[in-house]
# Entry
Amino acid sequence: MTLDLTAGGGIVWALLPEILLSICAMAVLLAGVPGGKTREASGDRADSLMRLALSGIIGAAAANAWLHGVNVVGDSGMIAVDPFRLYGNWILLLGAALTLLISIPYISEQRLQAGEFYSLVLLATAGMMVMVGTRNLIVLFLALETMSIAAYVLTGCNRRDRRSAEASLKYFILGAFSSAFLLYGIALVWGATGSVTLPEVAETIETGAGFAGLLLAGMGLIGIGFAFKVAAVPFHMWAPDVYDGAPTPSTAFMAVAVKSASVLAFVRVFLEAFWLLYDAWYPVAWWLAALTIIVGNLIALSQTSVKRMLAYSSVAHGGYLLVGLAAANEISTAAILSYLLIYTLMNAGAFGIVMTVGGHAENRVELDDFAGAGWSRPLLGVMFTIFLLSLAGFPGTGGFMAKIFLLQGAVASRLWTLALLLALGTVISYYYYLRVAWYMWMKPPGRAEATEQPAAALALRATLIGATALVLVLGIFPGPLLDGAMAAADALGLFSADGLLGLAP
# Structure
């Protein structure tokens, strides 16, 4: 099929995955109205609604696969149908699917509104997919707000937990500030160039027709907005409290999907619209990456809560990804894509096991609660150890290959200091990741274990086993993953052998 983006129907077909997700979200919300009052009824309802929501993700994935074979003609300037967007969609759909699959026992145990939770996950995912695929800054802002508002509510969806409400309020207030920075930056870019479309902004910069001072100010404010969403230091202050206070399924979703969408949108905007201003934003990206790696890893060392430790480690991983943005070459951009896919698998799996060990509650997330868990639950212990090793970057795991790709990108742009910081951050992270494994295997059990619902076993354990297997397979056979990521990065058409059209240092 030939898809003409200049025709009205072409845009509809281009947005087919997002449209299917939105329709399914409405269906899940309506189907979840007559929820059960008992824990058993709530569990049955959550299971049926999860299946409905998962069918929407499968439908969106099928539409995304169909778009790979579409011949695109014309350019609306609003929606991109390129491999970069489609690869990003796979990452986001995977993150949403993993969130749904690991959340069933938690939702039934805490008697949350399953219809609300799953519909918000789908709507947030639809917003994220538009973020990654749009070339229009106004559409980007609307998509980002769709994602953000859903994330605020997901953070506070446990109405009986004061910590959840506090985290939601913090996230909302700080998120509103970051959105204001982003919107003001978009306004300044429009004032400087007369356009909010990424290719037209880049063309105006190339011809020198824009107002330089106004443009730099707008670009800086947009960068601040994205840095907040990525949780880059010093804009990370919301992440630990929000991740720690939110229900764990919501934390897992924010840690993998929200971060992935923010990083991918950050990359598209700065590499498509502001590539000629690379000399201006490169030093800022360099320092953001360096500070985020250092601060995230150092503060994670002192955490005694596993959930909070994973929150600070997520900050550090954001710094690793910013190394790829600072490098601004084809290898580093492909490394960002492959890193995010592997990161989604290992981080969602880690949070799924934190939920399981904690009995699908929020009061058993300290290190002492994991003492002896490896011997009492050997399968979970082995899987969690693999996820932790992968997060640390241990050879033979997907996390190791992901970091190797980022190092190659940094070396290709001769960013020796950032490459060294990435390596040192990885070494530091071994301590706090392996400390959890040491508690699981080397310390005697502490408090009595929380009971686990038998119904939770099948979907959750199958998901964790599948994620573990993929992390190991991608650590041994990373070729197809990197090939697809290289093709997606090449679709941006901005790279020469020396980097960003030869501009990278």
